[in-house]
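[recover] target loaded
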């Protein structure tokens, strides 16, 4: 097994000791890509591995790395609704309003996948609710189209949510 496969295997299996050892020996691994174009951080966050994500960030993983479709780790956790990892990423410089090649932002993804806690969190972090995707639709337009009432309420009352954070 080569080093890259061992490294990504250690991420998937949550083997912190092996990850730390490999990163100390090969620091560039923190920002390398697998055969599908995923960075270690995108890979770790896809599997909801917060401890691994924190370790990778500690070893200078780029929190704004994009995969082949333009997704960042934050976009990946937004559709899954993992607020803890989203907070970790934002605390370490993730771009809250990054958009992928389809124009989806974290807020649009959280809306499309009916993740109201994530929508509320992103709004409190000042996500731009006016962003539109390539179909010229905003998060609110998707929420209305899918009749996600809780998310509609959050997006329509975002000024109230913002004022609670100040």
């Amino acid at each position: 097994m080569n080093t890259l496969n061992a490294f990504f295997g250690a991420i998937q299996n949550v083997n912190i000791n092996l990850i730390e050892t490999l990163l100390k020996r090969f620091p560039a691994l923190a920002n390398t890509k697998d055969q599908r174009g995923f960075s270690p951080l995108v890979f770790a966050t896809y599997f909801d591995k917060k401890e691994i994500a924190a370790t990778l960030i500690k070893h200078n993983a780029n929190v704004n790395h994009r995969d082949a479709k333009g997704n960042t780790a934050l976009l990946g956790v937004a559709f899954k609704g993992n607020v803890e990892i989203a907070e970790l990423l934002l605390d370490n410089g993730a771009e809250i309003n990054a958009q992928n090649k389809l124009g989806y932002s974290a807020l649009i993804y959280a809306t499309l996948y009916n993740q109201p806690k994530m929508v509320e969190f992103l709004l409190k972090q000042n996500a731009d609710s006016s962003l539109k995707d390539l179909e010229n639709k905003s998060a609110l337009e998707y929420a209305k189209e899918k009749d996600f009432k809780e998310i509609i309420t959050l997006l329509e009352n975002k000024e109230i949510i913002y004022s609670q954070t100040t």
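[recover] notes: The two ends are 51 Å apart (CA to CA).
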